[in-house]
Design a protein that fits this description.
Elements lengths: L1 E5 L8 H12 L3 E7 L3 H6 L3 E5 L3 H6 L1 H9 L3 H12 L2 H13 L4 E4 L4 H11 L3 E5 L21 H29 L7 H5 L4 E3 L16 E3 L15 H8 L5 E3 L9 H15 L3 E4 L13 E4 L4 H4 L5 E4 L3 H10 L3 E3 L6 H11 L13 H13 L1 H14 L4 H14 L1
């Protein structure tokens, strides 16, 4: 079967699907990944076909609209700003998915950012589609909407808020979906109606987010999908030398966040590391953080989390879904620094799991607060003990198995 995985967003929205694609290929399928050109090398390195989608996500996050999204943080303001940011490039994204599908596809796998448009492309091509989501986005009574960062509003309030957020985010796709359906000669069909029959598997562990009991049977939790490991990757000698030169360092990285003042954030992190008396690995990320290398500080580029995190004393990160998963897999204590959208949700999960002393929100970040949290994560052995226990449990799960089974059913149906 020719399978196309269409995903859009940051590295954390792409990396898990390289590993899933490898598993699908090992099961005998031909697998292509349609995503942004900036991720072409990582897709091809996994041995998968790359098909280009438009939009440069880093440039979008660095734009004025992207900076306003970061300032909005979570809550209704963040959802509103997300609508403003995304609406202008959704038509192009939809056309890109249609074009990628037309290159030869028997089954289309989509993510939360591509499903609404992908369902239109799949209908036009007369092929089945399955959703693969990295966040729990469907309304439930059991927790508040993941993208708002809100605390529980009580069971009725959580459900009401979930439906409100879902209706609001649907507006991100409505103009593009309607326009694409007209261009492809398809009859009108609302996003909510199309969603009713859409099978969705979620790529996180039920130990981290148990499947809500009030979800529709078409929604399931599969387990984590881990990024593909590059056989040709080797750690730079300077990184190996730094790790060997002293005790395990603390990793600090903010992934795909694009902050308006990277120099200020770097200075805060350096001051926190000095106050906490720890060696520091600073990942430059999309913000371009950088510090002068020394015996206690090393600036690094993208480095496989699966290799790096187990070699650190603690991980300080922006609490994106992908980095959160990698931290849990590594068995390393963590200090989340949530900035926007679903980051507060994952931060709360890390705290509830007992692997973190709690978040230090980006908008309230100070060197003093960060240093205190790092020291707490390192000095209290319960965090490392719990982190190792969670990692051991995750190692027993096979998140790709449910996807493989679903694909097999689709292939025979």
């Amino acid at each position: 079967m020719r399978i196309l995985i269409a995903t859009a967003g940051s590295r954390g929205d792409v990396a898990p699907f390289t590993g899933l694609g490898v598993r699908l290929r090992a099961a005998g399928h031909q697998v292509a990944v349609a995503t942004h050109t900036t991720f072409a090398d990582s897709v091809r390195a996994a041995g998968l076909e790359f098909r280009a989608l438009p939009v440069d996500p880093r440039a979008e996050l660095a734009s004025a609209e992207g900076r306003r999204l970061l300032r909005a943080g979570g809550g209704p303001g963040a959802v509103l700003q997300l609508l403003r940011l995304g609406r202008r490039f959704m038509p192009a994204l939809g056309e890109g998915i249609v074009d990628a599908t037309a290159l030869g596809t028997d089954l289309l796998l989509t993510t939360s950012t591509t499903s609404a448009l992908g369902q239109v492309a799949a209908e036009a091509a007369d092929i089945p589609t399955i959703g693969l989501y990295l966040q729990p986005l469907s309304p439930t009574r059991e927790f508040a909407p993941a993208v708002t960062g809100a605390r529980s509003l009580g069971r009725p309030g959580n459900l009401l808020a979930g439906h409100a957020v879902q209706a609001a985010t649907d507006q991100l796709f409505v103009p593009a979906v309607h326009g694409l359906r007209r261009r492809l000669g398809l009859p009108p069909l609302g996003i909510a109606r199309a969603r009713r029959d859409h099978r969705v598997l979620h790529g996180f562990s039920p130990r981290v987010v148990p499947r809500p009991t009030d979800w529709h049977p078409r929604l399931d939790v599969a387990g984590y999908w881990w990024p593909a490991e590059r056989a040709d990757w080797q750690a730079p000698q300077r990184l190996l030398d730094f790790l060997a030169a002293g005790p395990p360092p603390v990793f600090v990285g903010f992934g795909s966040l694009v902050v308006p003042e990277p120099e200020r954030l770097t200075a805060t992190v350096l001051a926190a590391a000095r106050a906490a008396r720890v060696r520091l690995l600073l990942q430059s990320g999309w913000s371009g953080l950088a510090a002068e290398d020394s015996e206690t500080v090393l600036t690094i580029d993208d480095t496989p989390h699966g290799w790096l995190f187990p070699r650190t004393a603690a991980v300080v990160h922006h609490a994106g879904a992908g980095t959160t998963a990698a931290t849990l897999r590594s068995g390393t204590p963590t200090v989340p620094v949530p900035g926007q959208l679903d980051a507060p949700f994952w931060s709360a999960r890390l705290t509830a799991l007992g692997v973190s002393p709690g978040p230090v929100p980006l908008r309230a970040l100070t060197a003093t607060r960060l240093a205190a949290s790092i020291r707490q994560a390192l000095d209290d052995p319960r965090y490392r003990t719990r982190a190792r226990s969670v990692a051991a449990a995750l190692a027993t799960e096979d998140g790709a198995a449910k996807v493989l089974a679903e694909v097999a059913v689709t292939a025979t149906g």
